[in-house]
Write a structure and sequence with these properties.
It comes from Thermomicrobium roseum. Helix content is 48%, strand content 0%. It has two helices and no strands. The longest helix is centred in the first third of the chain and has 16 residues. It is elongated. It starts with a helix and ends in an 8-residue tail after the last helix.
């Protein structure tokens, strides 16, 4: 019996072969790791949220 990691890799390769497509990731905003006030403010600014929601 294969390990769970090996099984997951096998499933991923079967998916690519079966469906044959993959879209590259295109981010509107990619934050750094972690969540703090600055990241929340950046997200709110991108979403054009009013100041009282920040």
């Amino acid at each position: 019996m294969a390990t769970p990691e090996v099984e997951l890799k096998r499933l991923g390769s079967e998916y690519a072969e079966k469906y044959g497509f993959r879209d590259p990731e295109q981010y509107v905003f990619k934050a750094r790791k972690g969540l703090d006030r600055e990241v929340v403010e950046q997200i709110s600014w991108i979403k054009n949220e009013p100041d009282w929601m920040r």
